[in-house]
Amino acid sequence: MKYTFEDNIGKKIISEAEIKAKITETGNRLTKKYSGKPLLILGILKGSLPFAADLIREIKIPVMYDFIRVKSYIGDKSGELSLIVDTTEDLSEFHIVIVEDVIDTGRTMQAVKTLINERNPLSLEIITLLDKPDCREVEFKADDALFTIGNEFVVGYGLDYNEFGRNLRDICTFIK
Ligand code: IMP
Ligand code: MG
């Protein structure tokens, strides 16, 4: 395993400041929309961790948060998804906002949406930090995408290449 990959990091496409501004905007929107309602932010591990951590602090109403971790078998195209870490909350008691790092083929989020809806949340909204609509293999549209990017692989702000790069503050292209 290589522990440095500076040479593989391409150009900065989204800066820390741009991310912060969009998250503040999103936090304000959620504050208004869910005021007076039981709200649970459900982050998808591991990629959404920095995004979820920053977003919850821009929400100015009482809010709970939890995480799930899923593993998708992208290779076999079955769209099969297994839950590695589940939430213990009763989702039927909450308005759920799923927070994801990136939607690429759409397979993961399509499966997660079905799984969460089966637990009868009061409502379900899906927010992704990044959207790559050109990469879709199944039809899927998030309720909110903070940034739309092209068909490029990126790292930073939670996104990884072989688990590295998640701690970068900006989002940068990555040359494999
Ligand atoms: P998909 O939408 O089911 O294809 O899968 C989305 C998942 O693929 C994300 O949760 C990421 O783990 C991973 N992924 C897709 N594109 C990127 C990228 O550009 N950088 C890092 N991870 C990515
Ligand atoms: Mg991921």
Helix content estimate: 10-25%
Count of extended strands: 9
How far is the first residue's CA from the last residue's CA? Answer: 14 Å
Write down the overall mean pLDDT: 94
Rg over CA atoms, rounded to whole Å, is 16 Å
Largest sheet: 6 strands, mixed
- Major sheet strand order: 4-3-2-5-6-7
In terms of DSSP E residues, the strand content is 25-35%
Note poorly predicted spans. none
Number of domains: 1
Going by helix content, strand content and strand pairing, the class is: alpha/beta
User: At the first level of CATH, what is the class?
Assistant: Alpha Beta
Order of helices and strands, N to C? EHEHEEEHEEEE
User: What ligands does this structure carry?
Assistant: inosinic acid, magnesium ion
CATH topology category name: Rossmann fold
Describe the 3D structure.
The chain is an alpha/beta fold. The protein has one domain (17-151): Rossmann fold (3-Layer(aba) Sandwich), CATH 3.40.50.2020. Helices cover 21% and strands 32% of the residues. It contains 3 helices and 9 strands; from the N terminus they run βαβαβββαββββ. It has helices at residues 16-33, 49-56, 107-117; strands at 9-14, 39-45, 64-72, 81-85, 95-103, 123-131, 144-148, 154-155, 171-174. It has a 6-stranded mixed beta sheet with strand order 4-3-2-5-6-7. The chain has a 3-stranded antiparallel beta sheet with strand order 1-9-8, with helices on one face. Strand 3 and strand 4 (81-85) form a beta hairpin. The protein is globular. The mean pLDDT is 94. The site of inosinic acid has 15 residues, from strand 5 and helix 3.
